[in-house]
Every structure is written in C-alpha cells, then in structure tokens.
Design a protein that fits this description.
Length: 341
C-alpha cells in the first residue's frame, strides 16, 4: 500500500515538473523580442518639387594614348587607382626607339665633324659657297633627326596629364598599341555632375540657379545640395526630353560615376517639419491615425495628427516629439507592450 502511494506521489511530481517546463517555454516564447526597423523623428527639410532619377557623371575625362605604334611592356595602373599629374602610366618596348636614337646620334656626329672640317676650307676661300650650304643643311637635318629620335624614345612612356582616377584600362602588357588608341582614361571626380532627362513641359521651370537636392541610395541615402545647373538646348528626338547636369562636390571621393541618384528639383517647394515615411502611419477602425514607437524595448501606440505630404513622407503635427523612435518596418507584428529589438 505504501508503494502505491509513493508511485502516485512521483507521478504527481513529474506532472508538475512537466507543466512547469511547458509553461516556462511558453512564457519564454511569448516574451521573445520582435525585430523591427525604426527611424528617429526629427525636424528636417523635405521638398515638394519635382522628382527625377539621374546618373552621376565625372566632371571630365581624358583618354591617354601613345603617339607611336609598339608592343606594350607594362601598364602601371589599374582601374580605380588615383593618379597625380606626371605619374608614369605605361610604357612600351623601347628597343626600336633606342636603335633609332643611336643611329641619329651617329649621323649627327658625322655631320658635325664634316662641318668643322669644311669650315676651315670655307674660311680659306677653298670651298664653294654652295658646298658650304650643303654641309650646313646636312647638320640641320641630322639635328632634326636626333630630336625626333629622342622624342620617339620619350614617347615610349606616357604620363598622367591631370590629377584623377583611372576610369578604364583598355590595354595590357603584350598587346600592340596604335597611335591615338587609348590605353587608359583618367576621370576628374573632385567635382561631379548628375545627368537628368527633363520633359520639355518642365524644362522651362528650371534655371541655372534652381535649388535641388541629390540623394544617393548607394551611400546610405546620403543627401547633397545640388549646385549650378547646366541646361541642354537640344531635345532628344524620340523622348522629347532635355538633358540637364547638376554640379555637386565630391571632396571625399566616395561618390563614383555611374551611381544612380534621386534628384529633387526644389524650386519654391521646400517644406520644413517632422516628416515620417507614409508607410509607418496606420489607421485604426475608429478612423484615427497612429504610429508605433519604441521606448524601453517595448512597442507603444501613439495617435498622431497629420499635415502636409512631401513625396513618400507625411508631416506629423502632434502625437510624437523629436527624438522618438518610430517603427517603419515590422510594425505588422507588434501590439501594445510587445518586446521589440
């Protein structure tokens, strides 16, 4: 009889432990924090002007090439390298140029030696004037050939004509270089331009001093104030758009040609206020608008009053304060008091 009681007691204890374990697991699961994305509310300037998509271009580009034909020995730079004016970029085989220079030097020496011998004869009136002129002419021709040979040897190396970044590398060691065939291109990127195609019905609204804002997604949606605008005067025959180019600074050098940029032509459409992404604003069954905020690791609902819109953002007039962290992604999974991370 005692054994049965002991067995019943053990069963009761095991059941209690199992229930407690399940309850603990359920509790742990219920308090698991939900991952969300937030944005800190603050007063910022947004535009209500016209938006475009543009492409970043270099301020200028220089194609560097050899002036003669030959086999490329070595290219000292790669795409993306920064170079200074005067830096050695590439060289080609110099054997032929050195041989030509040696021949030119020998010819020049021979001509000058002949000139010195004939000079005495000419001074003694023993050499006809015509022969003296021929000797002088040979010396001048030899000097011209010598200078040309020296220049040809120098031209076996090419140097950077400007400061910049190597944009493209078209030839490598072992390939044949032709006159005027580009070996590399050097881009000037200290200042850049953003090229935008503007419809003809909107081009008249844009002046060279029109304010603009450039946003580059590849750099974390960094915004830059645009500078002077250069307007094209000829429309594309198919699209009836005009190209404009907006000057922007690039002191850090991290903005690169080819990057896609969002371009907002501001004009007089500048708005300042607390603007949040429209997707973060929800509407309750009673018609009230609200957002979810994060405080102390918990989600909290805040009813808001909305104002103006600016692109894909909307102004919040009341309900939240500057510095509040507003959930912009993942809000579908939260409720009041939900733990978030």
């Amino acid at each position: 009889m005692k054994t049965i009681k002991d067995m019943n007691l053990c069963l009761v204890l095991l059941t209690a432990v199992f229930v407690a374990s399940c309850s603990s697991k359920k509790t742990d699961k219920s308090i698991e924090a939900i991952a969300v994305t937030t944005e800190t509310a603050s007063n910022k300037v947004f535009c209500t002007g016209i938006g475009y998509v543009g492409t970043v271009e270099e301020e200028s580009a220089v194609a560097v090439s050899f002036t003669g034909m030959g086999t490329v020995n070595r290219v000292y730079v790669d795409e993306g390298d920064r170079v200074r004016k005067g830096s050695l970029l590439a060289e080609m085989d110099m054997t032929q140029a050195r041989n030509a220079l040696a021949t030119a030097k020998a010819t020049h020496k021979q001509a000058t030696d002949a000139l010195e011998r004939m000079r005495q004869l000419h001074e003694n009136k023993s050499l006809a004037d015509m022969k003296w002129v021929e000797v002088q002419t040979r010396v001048e021709q030899a000097e011209a050939m010598l200078h040309a040979a020296e220049k040809a040897l120098e031209d076996c190396r090419i140097y950077a004509p400007v400061d910049g970044v190597i944009g493209r590398k078209m030839l490598n060691a072992g390939e044949t270089a032709l006159p005027t065939q580009p070996v590399v291109t050097i881009m000037s990127i200290n200042n850049l331009k953003v090229k935008v195609s503007v419809p003809e019905r909107e081009i008249a609204q844009i002046r060279d001093t029109t304010a603009s804002r450039i946003t580059i997604e590849a750099l974390g949606n960094r915004s830059i104030e645009g500078g002077k605008i250069e307007k094209g005067v000829k429309a594309d025959a198919l699209t009836h758009t005009y190209n404009i180019r907006i000057n922007i600074p690039n002191a850090g050098g991290d903005i690169l040609p080819g990057m896609v940029a969002k371009v907002d032509i501001l004009g007089n459409g500048v708005q300042e206020g607390m603007f949040l992404p429209i997707r973060a604003v929800q509407q309750a069954a009673d018609g009230k608008h609200f957002v979810w905020t994060v405080a102390g690791g918990k989600a909290h609902r805040c009813d808001i009053t909305m104002g103006r819109t600016a692109g894909d953002r909307i102004e919040v007039l009341s309900g939240i304060a500057a510095g509040d962290r507003v959930i912009t992604e993942g809000y579908q999974k939260v409720s009041e008091g939900t733990s978030v991370r």
